[in-house]
Design a protein that fits this description.
This protein has about 425 residues and is α/β, with parallel strands linked by helices. The protein is about 55% helix and about 10% strand. Helix 9 packs antiparallel against helix 10, helix 12 (about 195-205) crosses helix 23 (about 405-410) and helix 21 (about 355-370) crosses helix 22. It starts with 11 loop residues before the first helix and ends with a helix. Bound molecules: iron/sulfur cluster (2 copies). One iron/sulfur cluster binds next to helix 2, helix 3 and helix 5. One iron/sulfur cluster (SF4) binds near residues 27, 28, 72 and 73.
């Protein structure tokens, strides 16, 4: 008996790796918040096991506990037995979307998010309206609504600014060329954080990479993939694999996107996709791998580096962004407590599960503020919006930048 269909259910051998030791519990944000066994990695694995081997339907309770998971993968980092919770969740979520009837309200919320956030053409129209709404007090109004209100969450997160920089289709390498780097422009990233893309292209070119802007497809599918909307995500993945065929490396500067790109090989299960995934690097990882060519100018700044979960836990990239920032003379890196705990952003999580996301956002903001930093460096657009929201709520809206923006400023590119 099984409640999953035959299309890639979570693998029994992955489930069996969990020895229920509980080492992952203190790093799981939902367990930390609520202390509920079924809202821990171990509990969610037990539910997956029950769905695979004992149940004939996916119950509301199972889906509720899986939905409450942020997909932050802190449990993967913490687990001494090597449990691949990342694969388990990635296989469970599409099963839920196929085999569990969601309410009309839930379906609409997801559809509305995908129809806007993954569409740069629509975001470009909405961005100035969002900016105007923010200036008129949308974020303040959001803070006045309850933490559990999804409308309140959307209002609290309303971005005031959007980037205007454009990345040319080719930014030629300076000096001897190291290779051809395809830079993923993304969807939210290219609209609200276009300056981050421009800084990434400038720094890569200054360090010897020919930078090709991967402006198609419109989105890499990460947001959909992490929410279980697999068919839509994989259609975009196939397009991106084809678009980057002639690149030596594929560069992501948004943690959630990079993590999805590395999974294409397994999900599409073909050689081209596997070759693509093998070429994926986070921008900080690619740059930290080589001796820097451009001299870094002095920048006196106390910087708190915020680990985005999809970079630190899902891709294992922690040392590289720190190494890159440490190359800037005058930069003092400071470390917040509870680095491993998610800030609550997690793709659509801060809108779909606003109460837990708000609690985590406040906790993260307090830890970052306690460092006494002048600026926060974060390599994911979702984290940047979430941190901005809760730093502002705390009355201390520190600047939040991508590490590559600091590097660009230091080399004057
Ligand atoms: S996921 Fe890993 S750390 Fe957590 S209970 Fe299972 S074996 Fe232990
Ligand atoms: S992915 Fe994050 S929220 Fe989900 S079980 Fe693992 S640690 Fe907990």
């Amino acid at each position: 008996m099984t409640a999953f269909d035959a299309h890639r259910p979570p693998a029994a051998e992955d489930l069996d790796t969990c020895v229920h030791c509980g080492f992952c519990l203190p790093t799981c944000p939902t367990y930390v918040l609520w202390g509920e066994e079924m809202d821990s990695p171990r509990g969610r694995i037990v539910l997956m096991d029950a769905a695979l081997r004992e149940a004939d339907v996916l119950s509301d309770a199972m889906v509720t506990h899986w939905d409450r998971c942020l997909g932050c993968m802190a449990c993967v980092t913490a687990c001494p037995s090597g449990v691949r919770y990342d694969r388990l969740l990635e296989d469970t979520r599409p099963q839920v979307e196929r085999n569990h009837p969601r309410t009309r309200r839930e379906r609409l919320a997801r559809r509305a998010a995908f129809a806007t956030l993954t569409r740069p053409d629509r975001l470009r129209v909405l961005a100035p309206l969002a900016g105007a709404a923010a200036r008129l007090g949308a974020r303040r109004l959001g803070r006045a609504l309850s933490d559990s209100s999804r409308l309140g969450a959307v209002l609290r997160l309303t971005p005031e600014r959007h980037g205007r920089a454009r990345v040319p289709s080719l930014t030629p390498a300076r000096g001897e060329m190291r290779g051809r780097a395809g830079l993923l422009l993304g969807c939210v990233q290219r609209t609200f954080f276009a300056d981050v893309n421009a800084a990434t292209a400038d720094v890569l070119a200054a360090e010897g990479w020919d930078v090709v802007a991967l402006d198609r497809p419109r989105c890499c599918g990460a947001l959909m993939l992490h929410a279980g909307a697999e068919p839509e995500a994989l259609a975009l993945a196939r397009e991106l694999v084809a678009a980057a065929e002639d690149c030596d490396v594929v560069v992501a500067n948004a943690a959630g996107c990079g993590s999805a790109l590395r999974d294409y090989g397994r999900l599409l299960d073909d050689e081209r996709a596997a070759a693509f995934s093998a070429k994926v690097r986070d921008a900080t990882e690619l740059l930290a791998a080589d001796k820097p060519r451009s001299p870094r100018g002095r920048t006196e700044l106390r910087v708190a580096y915020h680990d985005a979960c999809h970079l630190a836990h899902a891709q294992g990239v922690r040392a590289e962004p720190r190494a890159l920032l440490a190359q800037i003379p005058g930069v003092e890196l400071v470390e917040p407590d509870e680095w491993e705990l998610c800030c609550g952003s997690a793709g659509l999580y801060n809108v779909l599960q606003p109460e837990a996301a708000a609690a985590l956002g406040r906790r993260k903001a307090a830890n970052l503020l306690a460092t006494g930093a002048d600026v926060i460096a974060a390599a994911n657009p979702g984290c940047a919006l979430q941190l901005q929201t809760y730093l502002e709520e705390a009355g201390r809206p520190l600047p939040i930048v991508h590490p590559l923006e600091l590097v660009r400023a230091s080399i004057g590119a």
